[in-house]
Amino acid sequence: MQSIESIMTTSPVIPVIRIDNLDHAVPLAKALVKGGLKVLEVTLRTEWGLAAIADIKEHVPEATVGAGTVIDAQNYANAVAAGAEFVVSPGCTAALAQAAQQYDVPMLPGIATPSEAMTLLEFGLQHLKFFPAQAAGGIPMLKSIAGPLPQLKFCPTGGVNPDNAADFLALENVLCVGGTWMLDQALIEAGDWSSIEARAKQAAAL
């Protein structure tokens, strides 16, 4: 099982994928991987999330696929059972942090404040999702956190786009960013996987 740091340093951008049609999961994952984005976060926001993780795990072995929007222990168990190689949460509770200790599958828990980060440090969690990144202070907030909490490493997600992603990635405490800009819904609905691949290539080059 990969460490969360290894996963976060595989590609500069982690696509945050919402699956509304299970038939799209595998070709979408293949296009993203061909474009250089090998770490994929499939959110559990739709009924197809877990099935999509299982399909990608089976048919796109070169991808590292994780589950997003994991908000409780049952979500965590379901994600692991589906084959997720990591899990991502928008925030984190003590119960969720405790659940994470039961599995080899690592968690990238979300925080928005220094106090939340310090709480997770008590559980030994130093690799965090900064969410919602722009709304919670963006680059200035991450720079401020780096002073008193230099051991923390982040994946900012929420409001990250092609115009600001490189600025986030330039920060010493940022290992990668999460985003959706390469996942154009019209292209996905049309099955235009070559255009998705091209967008992934641009993101991977950041």
Shape: globular
CATH class: Alpha Beta
> What would CATH call the architecture?
Alpha-Beta Barrel
Strand ordering within the main sheet: 3-2-1-9
Number of beta-strand segments: 9
CATH superfamily: Aldolase class I
If helices are DSSP runs of H or I spanning 4 or more residues, what is the number of helices? 10
Strand content: 15-25%
What oligomeric state best describes the polypeptide chains here? Answer: single chain
Fraction of residues in H or I helices: 40-55%
Largest sheet: 4 strands, parallel
Beginning-to-end CA distance, first to last residue: 26 Å
As a whole number of angstroms, the C-alpha radius of gyration is 16 Å
Describe the fold and architecture.
The chain has a four-stranded parallel beta sheet. Strands 6-7-8 form a three-stranded parallel beta sheet. The protein has about 210 residues and is of the alpha/beta class. The protein is built from ten helices and nine strands. It has a single domain (about 5-205), classed as Aldolase class I (TIM Barrel). Helix 3 (about 50-60) links the parallel strand 2 (about 40-45) and strand 3.
Tags for this model:
206 residues, alpha/beta, TIM Barrel, three-stranded parallel sheet, 40% helix, globular
Give the helices and strands, then pairings.
Elements: H1 4-8, E1 13-17, H2 25-34, E2 39-43, H3 49-59, E3 64-68, H4 73-82, E4 87-88, H5 94-100, E5 107-108, E6 110-111, H6 114-121, E7 127-130, H7 138-146, E8 153-156, H8 165-169, E9 177-179, H9 185-190, H10 193-204
Parallel strand pairs: 1-2, 1-9, 2-3, 4-5, 6-7, 7-8
Helix pairs in contact: 2-10
